[in-house]
Write a structure and sequence with these properties.
Two copies of one chain form a homodimer. The first copy, chain A, has helices spanning 9-17, 75-90, 119-124, 132-146, 154-163, 167-176, 195-202, 205-220, 255-272, 280-312, 321-348, 354-357, 362-382, 389-399; strands spanning 30-33, 40-47, 52-59, 62-65, 68-71, 98-102, 107-111, 117-118, 224-226, 235-238, 241-244, 251-253. Chain A is of the alpha+beta class and 401 residues long.
Chain lengths: 401, 401
């Protein structure tokens, strides 16, 4: 009965009805499959009589992207549910609650967040989320600090590294973020209008060196349990609530990779402002909001992370101020570098972003793509020299001048 | 029958007699327990009639150091035997052959190397080993390259990281090498004569920062399958043969830690020359031999590692010359830093070295200890700025001027 097979809606309902404490055994339930069908089935199960609802998320044994299909481990459902449970223990209000995980079915039963919207969509609609910076800074500070050698027992951390070895999902990142965009790979989707800029990237050896260095960090620096795919499509949001979802790519990696992912996706929207039909002033205002959010996230993250470190650091050797200064500077540099990598791959790599791709005006879309490449490559090239988050902001500001 | 219990000599003989292809079932065997009894039982089993012999090494469930005893995982026998088998596949002549490993007994049956001597002893006796540099350079180049993201499938490497998670043994290193020597810890054995120099180390914040940075690398940089304890007591040697033994501390860590361990132990002998009863010229000659060996090891290692990389590198992104230059410079810096850490802990930490401790002349012993601390701390402080192996040699040369 619990041998793996992809659920039908009827099976999803039957399964949900058996969940104790959620629904009565005879309850009337409805199901709607709301996944995109590329990686997972996502059943929205609700009980109209009470208004109660939950999500059943089931991993599929393959991935479909642009028509291609390849096998993909079901173990990612375990990684995702176990990561969510650790994250919930650290910041309960910032991730969906997991009611149950069933290994054999690669199935996770979790809190329904239908009252939230995907943040990427919210940003495309021009919304502002004044609490987002403090929410995501708290998420990053707590999940990165408390899963690292700074904030947890260092022997238990090694067992966590083992628990979250995630070769197949890491491979996707290693190829699609750190390799394919920098060569003429089959997986790329190069927009014809910007082919010249993309070819410049393929031939830029200075850039390739910096990307190789960042990829080395991704391959070897087991610093903290990362979300691993923290773009604005992995964030559910509404005015007073932020929920980080979908940590299938979780593994022990460099902290800057998660922080950089957030900044990159805010900057991709910043670039996409070229094409949204607002007047100049509205565009400048929204860009100011996006950059202000980045600055606020870094500042709050930095403050909270160091405060956790001072109060709850487990390691005498790492408690000195000079070491913390060194560590935070290195983290800033990683963050800026990974932010750049996360931008570039979204312009001409396999998986692109709606912020830019939805633009109707072709000339504006081209400007947005060039802008994203310019900011992304500048961040990558500058990353090892960075001293302050203001340098990231300056790169973005100079690029639209 | 195979439930864990410490073997008697009779049991060791009975076990050996059952090994197929080694001894006949009715063979006359003798056993001699030659371990130091602190961590492992080591039975030397021989058949006088044929001259055949083997080693049975059995891990004990505790460690004894200076009278203290604490529990220690038997899993280290698995780590050791699996590491030896990987190393043998990469450089068959440089490690003992493993005939069998039996998990439940924490028992490894391996090649007898009684015709070799422990290298530390050989150096103390003033011997020279002209083939050592090329042997150990080949060992380092092959074991580090082929277990890293440079030389093996990067997804399989992640499974290897998992296989060699080694929390208990790493904890010993994290404490005894990177923590205790830099504070007034109970585990230290501070020689009274050099207490002033040791206290200077306890108060040197610049030094502490560099040690914390190196410890961070040990905790998080999963670059290659290290031996993890590669001092001259872990090397069996004779004129034409070098065998690296005892990789119980193996885990995925920074490559420079293994290379640095070799250099540190040659430099400890260099410092100990203060007290060996040779004339000035003989002392200077032997020191020249030791430094020449370090230079030759680095040069051969560097050449062989890069040559393997160019020929057998698995990773397009990491094949560029500028990246390889960056990587090798970083590796040199790590090597110099870890060499310094490995020296300092051997002067006033828990586990010291016979090279210095056997010195009879108290004044000479004190000079040797001060010299080792001076070289070690200079290497640590300089490590992030190093450009060439000559800087390590200069630090050693200046220290005896």
């Amino acid at each position: 009965m619990s041998t793996y097979h992809a659920f039908t809606e009827a099976e999803a309902i039957a399964y949900a009805r058996r969940m104790p404490d959620l629904f009565a055994p005879d309850s009337e339930l409805t199901s709607r499959e709301i996944g995109d069908g590329n990686l997972n089935l996502v059943f929205h199960i609700s009980e109209p009589a009470t208004g109660k609802s939950i999500i059943l998320k089931q991993a599929l044994p393959y991935a479909k992207v642009v028509g291609e299909s390849w096998p993909l481990t079901l173990d990612r459902a375990r990684i995702e549910s176990e990561t969510l449970m650790i994250q919930e223990s650290l910041c309960p209000d910032l991730v969906p609650h997991v009611f149950a995980y069933e290994k054999d079915l690669a199935l996770t039963v979790m809190q329904d967040l239908s009252d939230h919207v995907i943040m990427r969509k919210g940003l495309i609609e021009g919304n502002r989320y004044p609490l987002f910076a403090q929410h995501i800074a708290r998420f990053l500070a707590n999940t990165l600090f408390y899963t690292s050698d700074l904030g947890m027992n260092q022997q238990e951390k090694k067992e966590r590294v083992k628990q979250f070895i995630n070769p197949e999902l890491c491979k996707i990142t290693e190829d699609l973020i750190f390799d394919d965009p920098y060569r003429d790979a089959d997986t790329n989707n190069v927009p014809a209008a910007i082919r010249d800029a993309v070819e410049t990237i393929w031939n830029d050896r200075e850039l390739h060196l910096e990307v190789a260095i960042l990829r080395n960090g991704f391959l070897t620096h087991a610093e903290a349990l990362l979300h691993g795919d923290l773009h604005t499509g992995s964030i559910f949001i509404k005015e007073d609530s932020t929920k980080v979802i979908d940590p299938e790519f979780a593994y022990y990696g460099p902290m800057g990779f998660d922080i950089g992912a957030v900044f990159a996706n805010l900057l991709l929207n910043y670039a996409a402002q070229e094409g949204w039909s607002r007047d100049e002033q509205a565009r400048a205002d929204y860009r100011g909001y996006l950059l202000g959010t980045i600055k606020e996230i870094w500042s709050l993250f930095h403050g909270e992370f160091r405060s956790l470190w001072s109060l709850y650091g487990v390691d005498r050797v790492q408690q000195s101020e000079s070491y913390q200064d060194w560590y935070m500077q290195r983290l800033l540099r990683d963050t800026i570098g990974y932010a750049g990598c996360k931008m570039v791959r979204r312009v001409h790599g396999l998986a692109q972003v709606a912020d830019i791709n939805q633009l109707q005006d072709e000339a504006a879309k081209e400007r947005a793509q060039r802008l994203a490449l310019q900011i992304g490559t500048s961040l990558i090239k500058h990353h090892r020299h960075a001293q302050s988050i203001d340098e990231l902001l300056d790169i973005a500001i100079q690029a639209v001048k």
